[in-house]
Amino acid sequence: MTRAQRANNPAGKGHHRPGQDTATRADPPAQRGTATAPDAPARPAPAPAPGRAPGPRRPDRENDRPDGPGTPPGAPGTRRDRRRLRRRARRDHRRSLPRWRRTVPTWRTSLTLLGGGLLLSTGTFAALYLAVPVPDPNAHALAQSNVYYYADGITEIARTGAVNREDVALDQVPVHVRDAVVSAEDRTFFRNRGIDLKGMVRAAWQNVSHLGQGGRAFQGGSTITQQYVKNYYLTQEQTLSRKARELFISLKVDRQDSKDEILAGYLNTSYFGRSAYGIQTAARAYFGTDAAHLDLAQGAYLAALLQAPSAYDVKTASPANREKAVARWNYVLDGMVSLGLLDQATRAATAFPEVLDPQPAGGLEGQAGYLVDIADDWLTQTGVLDTATLKAGGWRITTTFDKNRQDAFVNAVKQELTAELDPVKRPRTDTDVRVAGASVEPGTGRIVAAYGGPDYAVQPYNDALRQDNQVGSTFKPIDLAAALEGDRTTQDGKPITTQTPYDGTSGRLVVGGPTPYAPPNEDNENHGQITLREAMMRSVNSVYAQLGIDAGLDNVRRTAIRLGLPDSLQGMDPDHSSMTLGTATPSALDLAAVYAALANHGQAFRPWAVTALERPGTGDRPALPAHDATTAVSRTSADAVTDVLRDTVGPRGTGATAQALGRPAAGKTGTTDDNRSAWFAGYTPELATVVGLFRENKKTHAKESLAGTAGYERVNGGTFPARIWTSYMGAALGGSPVGQFDLQPGPGNTEPPTPSPQPPAAPKPKPKPKPQPKPKPKAPAVKRPAAARPAAAPAPAPGPPPAPRP
Questions:
Q1: Residue 58 has what pLDDT?
Q2: Is pLDDT above 50 for 392?
Q3: Strand 433-440 relative to strand 447-451: parallel, antiparallel, unpaired?
Q4: E strand intervals along 367-523
């Protein structure tokens, strides 16, 4: 009834309301519950629709009426009343039941609760699924080791990084190894949607039913996807919140990643024991091979380890745990058969594999840390990788270092120096003695060996790279090379060649220098007029101090830089006349580059340390720079210097010790003021090597004198450094053909046929006793000159001590 109708009919006459006892208006008054007012005319029945004849009345209409024939006598007249009565009757019946029975919900209540619970659970699950995102990978999952190899690409030098992991692509893992992991950890992996509810329920039941039974492994019921999510995205904490997040993230990961991607991630992030994360490092730790070469038995064992890595290591496990490990291995193989991944004949023929004993972690102890430093330094300085990218890990780095030559360098230091030190007997002089060394191929620039210290774990500072020790007279070949370049002349206008004479008076004041400088010669010896060749052999300071001024200190500096010294070195300032005698402080590797360039006829390579670089599993292979030589000095100048340095390692030179190498060699000794460092730098046509010796206070890092070391009154470059150089070079070149210098020194730079320094006239008179009576029996006298030649070596004893031992 509308508002207007209610206003005109306040009594509500003729309007039907729910619950009102009325009948159809078309019914006669006798059939309605109330009498019709006499003045109320009956309303005619509605006319039938046009074109449609009125149909018969529905026969069941009478029964549908509230007070129809089906209504029991005395019953209320509406459905609502009847429902109310039925509910009241049920309540009365329930109240009549015993109290314990009334606590049991009715079936209607149970259905209501169940339906509501299902709806609530579904809504909550959907809300959480939408609310829990897939997070970024955790830092631990991304952390990997950098693995460094010797030049052969097989022998490992070291692994760096907090996490011992090396990722590999799935195609580098054999199929039978993948199948073994699926058999061990999740046999429904390829069918489930990231989680396995049946497996979770089964695991929970097993754990509850075996509660209190000690020694039984706890079953987690997690799928491979769930374990991967835990390893890669979450943490290892055992909380309900972490488990819930794992569940929802696993569902999402299974939808967004392929099964192969999930399996690859799982294999690379799982822990296998022995500090090995990932299948690659596990393969190396247990079987000494790459993952790609694992056989069926080995793969099944690694899969078995996933359940209890430490407990199932058969080399360290108790007898009981070893039995469990073997049982788990059998379980894996049997599962492969049941899954149709392995035939029964192959299964029966598979024997338990031989597992390696645990090995110390491939850390940075020994020489490894020094070699890693050199490789890292080269990668970052050349811009191949920045420090952050390198430290992120995951790199496989093949270096230029030769394992045999590296071992030879270490042995040479031990035999020629360490064996003669006695810190107990000489605590003031035989302690804190340190060696720096580097070895470079002249024709390629490859760093084949280096010596940075006795043990990186004890002395983590790399002496092969340090730039704080003056190199002394080993700088003189740079002076000579600079003077031979161009048309340089002496102070009196004479062209400079290796045969140009200079005044060798000790303490003579140099002429034309930017600062006053009058260096003494060793032992303050005066040499008079002496050629540059002879002055190099005897390491005459007064001559080469003047030569550097004549060559031009700026020119000397530029030549040093072109040959390989860094331009940022201390002690290479052309405003100081002393620069000519080696106040510069290059590292052993820097100086080796200079001598390698001289050996290579003036063609300089920047020393390099890495031959291959890749990040397995990612396809990331940064391009390495080309190794092109640059012309540092002309060939005639470089060869002239080499020709002079060959005499320096001759019988009358300061480097006479190096003759023991038995090969053509060239080199130069160096000793600094107060005997704070001693050097020998030399080369053959095949190899250039530098050895430096110094002492440093461990606490203050102040340089200390070498005087008294191993009982030597003074330690020159011709003693321990030359001995170490000779021992190393002999081992490094052993078995290779003897190379000859191919020199083109140019006019004026070769020694004249009859020079004054050829006074081996002393041996010549001795053969004259031949004409004496009975000369024939004295035929063996021909051998005496050969025996007499070594005796001539001590003749120039006034110079630096050539004797190798005290």
A1: 47
A2: yes
A3: antiparallel
A4: 396-399, 433-440, 447-451, 501-503
